[in-house]
Amino acid sequence: MASAATYSVVTALSHVGLVRDHNEDSLVIGQWTLCAAETQTPQSLGFPIASPLVVAVADGLGGHPGGDVASSLVVRELARAAPTLDSEASLRDVLSACNRALYEIGADQPTLMAMGTTVAGVLLTSDQVIAFNVGDSRIYSHGPDGLRQVSVDDRPALAPGQEHTALLTQTLGGGLTYADVEPHLSASPQSTDVRWLICSDGLSDMVDDEALGELLNEAEDGQAAFQLWKAAIEAGGSDNITLALIRVA
Q1: Which end of the chain is less enclosed by CB atoms within 10 A, N or C?
Q2: What are phi and psi of 244, to 5 degrees?
Q3: How far apart (Å, rounded) are the C-alpha atoms in residues 109 and 98?
Q4: Is 197 a member of any domain?
Q5: The domain containing residue 47 runs over which residues?
Q6: Positive or negative, the Cα torsion across 10, 149, 93, 89?
Q7: CB of 116 within 8 A of CB of 171?
Q8: In 10 A of CB 7, how many CB atoms?
């Protein structure tokens, strides 16, 4: 049995990639946010397991106005609400509030109409981890049994012979008229045997799950984050790349 967790280490980076002209990804770790900007090297932060900790990635929708505005709004709201989050219901409420806010801003500012974002993250409490996502940003757990995708991709089923689709069936905002969202939520016990990887599709579309698992097997924390980013860049870096690795100890 794993020993009780006493602190967590979160290592993260965000990079524009090799093709996009700006970064529309945003990141939240506790009260710290990185919005539509870059980290030149992986950044590591440590937290005691004493109060709720939210770690999440938001990926502004490309091809829509204000993707960077949308992703920034969501991570800042998660940071603001983090101390009060303690359950699946509280997460559902704050994500619904973010969704409404994006539509309201779009209605008031026509240049931002239909802006939207994905979000994926985890809420760490003293005894459990609650994973949540809307869209196709991903959450993986990595433990003794290998890599497992925990999030649910909000993408339509692929047609025969189709390998990928950029279409999404659900996002925060992103439409001309208001639509409710149903976040994907799942809880698991806190464990020192499991690491968590949260990332935008700039990583998961570039590097397949097998390669992600191999890289996580080989390194931890900053070195692992760097190698994951490097793999996405070497695969073409066609989108913004944002990731966070969480280790409890």
Answers
A1: N
A2: -140, 135
A3: 16
A4: yes
A5: 7-156+165-248
A6: negative
A7: yes
A8: 12
Phi and psi at 42, nearest 5°, equal -60, 140
State the burial class of residue 113 (Cβ atoms within 10 Å of its Cβ: 0-12, 13-18, 19+). Answer: middle
Query: Residue 65 domain-assigned?
Result: yes
Residue 163: the pLDDT is: 61
* Measured distance CA(10)–CA(243) in Å, rounded: 10
Q: What is the mean pLDDT of each run of 10 residues along the chain (249 residues)?
A: 73 96 96 89 90 95 91 97 94 98 96 96 94 98 96 82 75 96 96 95 97 96 96 97 95
Position 140 in a domain: yes
User: How much is the pTM?
Assistant: 0.94
- C-alpha distances out from residue 69 to 62, 93, 119, 175, Å: 12, 21, 13, 15
Per-residue pLDDT at 249: 85
The tally of domains found in the chain comes to: 1
CATH of the domain at 116: 3.60.40.10
Any domain includes 1: no
